[in-house]
Amino acid sequence: MAEEKIDSTEYWKANLRLITGCLIVWAFVSYGCAILFRPLLSGIPIGGTDLGFWFAQQGSILTFIALIFFYAWKMNRLDKKFGLGE
Amino acid sequence: MSQFAINVLFVGASFALYIGIAIWAKAGSTKDFYVAGGGVHPITNGMAIGADWMSAASFISMAGLIAAGGYANSTFLMGWTGGYVLLAMLLAPYLRKFGKFTVPEFIGDRFYSKQARMVAVICLIVASVTYVIGQMAGAGVAFSRFLEVDATTGLIIAAVVIFCYSVLGGMKGITYTQVAQYIVLIIAYTIPAVFISLELTDNPLPPLGLFSEHSESGMPLLAKLNEVVTALGFNEYTADVDNKLNMVLFTLSLMIGTAGLPHVIIRFFTVPKVADARWSAGWALVFIGLLYLTAPAVASMARLNIATTVYPDMAGQVENVEDATTNPILYEERPGWIRTWEETGLIQYEDKNDDGRIQLYNDTEAFAPTAEARGWEGNELSVNNDILVLANPEIANLPGWVIGLIAAGGLAAALSTAAGLLLAISSAISHDLIKGAINPRITEKGELLAARISMSVAIVVATYLGANPPGFAAQVVALAFGIAAASLFPALMMGIFSKRVNNHGAIAGMLSGLAFTLVYIFVYKGWLFIPGTNNLADTPENWVLGISPLSIGAVGAIINFAVAFGVSKATAEPPQEIQDLVESVRYPKGAGTASGH
Prior knowledge:
The structure holds two protein chains of two kinds.
Chain A: H1 2-36, E1 45-46, E2 49-50, H2 51-81
Antiparallel strand pairs in A: 1-2
Helix pairs in contact in A: 1-2
Chain B: H1 3-24, H2 30-35, H3 42-53, H4 56-69, H5 74-98, H6 103-110, H7 114-146, H8 151-201, H9 206-209, H10 221-231, H11 244-260, H12 262-265, H13 274-310, H14 321-324, H15 336-344, E1 347-349, H16 368-373, E2 381-383, H17 387-395, H18 400-438, H19 444-467, H20 476-497, H21 503-525, H22 553-570, H23 576-586
Antiparallel strand pairs in B: 1-2
Helix pairs in contact in B: 1-8, 1-18, 3-8, 3-13, 4-13, 4-17, 4-18, 5-11, 5-13, 5-20, 5-23, 6-7, 7-8, 7-18, 7-19, 7-20, 7-21, 8-13, 8-17, 8-18, 8-19, 10-13, 11-20, 13-17, 17-18, 18-19, 20-21, 20-22, 21-22
C-alpha cells in the first residue's frame, strides 16, 4: 500500500512535468511566435509574408495537433510504466 | 436537372441518412442516452467531436471573418483549435475517469455542494442556449437560400430532423449522425477550396496554395493580395496589430472557452477508456484542423477573387495602380454569381457616380483624396462576409452538384452542433435538475422518459428562439465563450489539479468570475443586451486597457482562480473522501464505463 502511494505520487509529478512542457510549447507558438514575437520574426520570409503570419494561420494549428498526440503517446507509456493503465 | 432539384436531392439524401441512423441507433437506457453506451471508438469520437464543434459559424462565417480582418482575425483560428490542447491535458482524461454523465455532476460531487452543481447548471444552460439559437437561425438561412422555402419553414424542417435522431437515439443517435455529418461537411468545404486553389495558384492543396505563387501575376499570393487591397484603400491583409494585449486575451478567452464548453466535454464521456479520451482529443483536432487549415486559404483566395473580378486589370502584373484601377467592370457585364447573390440581398450595388461601373473600395476619410482623384463617389458594392463559402462554387464556376453539396454541408454543420448542444441542455435538466435535486429516487425508465421530454422541450424552445432571435443571440462569442471561460473551465480544472479548493471557494470563484465577465460585457453591449442601456460606447477608446468585451473571459477566469484559492485558504479544507476522489480521478486505473450512480 505504501509503495503504491509513492508510485502514484511519482506518476502525477511526471504527468505535471509533461503538461508544463507541452503548455510552454503551446503558448510559445501561439502567443509567442504568432502574436508577441511577430515583429522579431518579420525578417524570415515565407510565401510573400513573414513567419509570424504563418504561425498565426497554420503553424500553431499543426503544432497543437502534434502536441496532443505526443502527450497521449507519452502518457500511455507512463500508464504502463507505473502499472496504472487499464 | 435544375439547381433547385439538385439541392433538394442532396439535402434530402443527407437527411434520409441521418434518420436512417437514428432508427438503427435507438437508445435503450439512460447510459445509451447520455453517453452512447460508453463504447465509442476514439477515431469515431474524434469525428463526432469535429462535427459537434464545427458549427454554422465555423462552416459559413469564419472564412468571411478572416477575409475581412486578415491577420488580426487569426485569433479565431488559434483560439478555436488551441482549446483542444487544454482539453486533452487538463480536463478530458480526468473527467472521463470520474465516469459520470454530466459536467455539473462532477462540479457537484467534487465540491460536495448542490449549490455548486446548480450554478454550473445555470452557466451551462445560458451558454448552450445562446449557442443553439445561432445554429437554428443558421439552418433557417441555409434552407431559405438553397431550398426556396422561407426561413421559419426551414427552421421547422430542421427541428423535425433533429427531433427524430436526438429524442429517439440520445447521445447514441447523435454520435453516429455526427460522424455522417462530419463527412458531408468536410467534403462540401474542401472540394470548392481545391478548385479555387488550383485556379489561383496551380496548387491543389489550399493550405499550400496560400503560401504559393499567384499564377496570373507571378507574385506570392499574399503579396498580390496586399497589393490589391492597399490599392483600394484597405489595410494590408497581413498587417500586424497594435493592440497585442487584446489579441492575446481574445485568443486565450476563445481557447479556455472552447475547453469549458459542456457540449464538447460530454463527448469525451462516450469512449471506453481514459487513454481513449486523450487519443480522441488528438483525432478531433486532426478532423477540425482539416477545415481550419483550409479556411484561411479560402479567405484570402476569395477576397482576391472578388477584388480582381471587379478590377480585372489588377489581376496580372501591375505597372501603375492608378491605371489598373480605372477600368472596373461594367455593372451590366457582372458575372452570374453577383446576380444570384444580389437576389438574396447579401450583395448590394448602387451606382453612386453614374458611370455604369462597379467601384469597390474602402470608403474612409484617409482614402478620400485618392478616391476623389479617381472620380469615385463612394463604395458601390457591399458584399456580406457570410457569402464567401456559400458562393465559392459559383465564383469558381463549379458544376451544380457542388452547390448542392455546399447546401447539405452547411446544414450538416448547423444540425450537428445544435444536436450536441440540445443534448447538453437536456441532460443537465433531466440528470442534474430532476434526478439530482427534485426527485432523486426517479427510476431508470422514468429518467429516460424525463430526458426525452426535456430534449423535446429544448428543441421547441430553440426553434422558437431561432425564429425570433432575442438580442443576446448575436453575442455568442462574448456570452457563451465568456461564461465557459470565466466559470466552468476554472472550476473543472481546480477540481482536478487542487485538493485544497473547497465548496465555498469553488462557488465564490465561479460567481465572481461570472459576475465580473457579465458586468464588463453589459457595460459595453447593454444590460441583458437591451439596446441603448450600455453605459459606455463599445469602441476601443473606451475599453479598459484596450481589452474588448469579447476578450474579457480570460480575465474573468483569472479572477475565478484567485477568489477560489483565497476563499479556500480561509476556510476548512475538503473532507478526506473528497481528497480521495481527487486522487482517484488522476489515475486511469479502474475507470470502468461512465455511470449515473
